[in-house]
Amino acid sequence: MQDCFLDSKPADSVPLVLVPENTFAQWLENQPDMIERWLAATGFKAKPNSYCLISAADGALSTVIVGVASADDPWACGGLPTALPAGNYHIDTDWSPAVMERLALGWGLGAYRFTRYKNNQQSIARLALDPAWNGQQIRQSLQALTLVRDLINTPAEDMMPEQLANAMLMLGQAFGAQVVQVTGDELRAQNYPLIHAVGRASIHPPRLLDLRWGDEQYPKVTLVGKGVCFDSGGLDLKNASGMRLMKKDMGGAAHVMGLARLIMSASLPVRLRVLVAAVENAVAGNALRPGDVVKSRKGLTVEIHNTDAEGRLVLCDALTEAASENPALLLDCATLTGAARVALGPELPALFCNNEELAAGLLASADEEKDPLWRLPLHQPYREMLDSRIADIANASDSTFAGAVTAALFLREFVPENIPWAHLDLMAWNTKARPGRPEGGEAMGLRAVYRYLRGRFGG
To answer: How far is CA 68 from CA 73, 77, 145, in A?
Structure first.
């Protein structure tokens, strides 16, 4: 991906003048007659995500007037890198550095293209970063979010458990973190039976990836990611349309890896651990069957009602291991249920949380960062939907109701109540292109979680 930023403003840089729609009339009164007449002739009204090119007397591009919804819209410049003529630009609007940094990140995310399989050498519009902005933080954030998108967008053929492990190893090497793997039959030997059971039918051996970073004197923050690199549904086979986007079923793993990159690049004073259960949910003669009972790492027996409810199975073994160290905060990310998408749509991640202070902090950070989360309840009366006649718990309910809630309740069984825990059930995919958010893999809620961690733990 080409660098869409410049560290200084070149002489040929074109100013971008950002004008909120609700102040456009007032702003227009103070403009030269030529600009006022030109904007009237083109019908420009400063609608959000609109722009108007202004030429100089010699015909060269001199200014771009950009309509925005408001100063706190992080996507105000997100559509410009692909819409404007290739060249150099700078923002000529007097807003605070924090606002400008968010706009610059939106620009960078709008410039994103997944080009691994496609020749895309076209020139792009580049934005000059003002020295007053934290350019390093902008680039670090963009690199982390790009990592998430790239991992999700990569087809399953090139993103099976071993490739996901390689990505984790590269991440660890970049920041001096320790990464170990438990692979194949060794999962059974080391008591990760459900991760093994879900992944054993694949020719790509399942594995648990374990990254550790940071000084042990700092508070422990543990992240757990669902790394189902492709989900056929297992013997409860998905149909063709249901399987089409299942390369993104490792989106939770991508999110915790991107979040880890942000934490480590900022040297946040935490003792970080990242656990990713990486599997392919495949079909073969040794595949997990409906009706099977498997004893989990925690010791609870789980009856398999549906092999397509596999994400919670690999997560529960990882969560049990995560909880064994009693972290100050435990967060898991997963593309877990279609029910969450039915309830909230594809753009809004569901937040489940067992701690009111943690939930309030995450929601406040989501609002401040304009990176939305929506809390759903851990409604205990629905726990009976997961009752099994022959095991301690079933992995899915026979009911068509409250699927996201029952999935979260299943996970809660493996997290002690004294550990503050949050669970994000997210889409990890843009179903349509919007400014700053191309169609394809997407980081959702990640900026919000990082803002919370930065505020709580410092850095």
So the answer is: 8, 8, 23
259 has a pLDDT exceeding 80: yes
Residue 223 lies in a domain: yes
**Token reading at 363:** 């929601």
Cα dihedral value 46, 47, 50, 56, nearest 10: -10
pTM of the model: 0.96
Average pLDDT score over residue span 238-243: 97
129 and 180: one domain? no
Summarize pLDDT for 335-358 with one digit per residue, the tens: 999 999 999 999 999 999 999 999
Maximum Cα–Cα distance across the chain:
82
162 and 85 together in one domain: no
Amino acid at 171: L
What amino acid positions are annotated as catalytic residues?
Answer: 238, 312
Q: Are residues 264 and 232 in the same domain?
A: yes
What is the tens place of the pLDDT at every residue in 86-136? 999 999 998 999 999 999 999 999 999 999 998 866 778 999 999 999 999
SS (HEC) of 216-285: CCCCEEEEEEEEEEEECCCCCCCCHHHHCCHHHHHHHHHHHHHHHHHHHHCCCCCEEEEEEEEEEECCCC
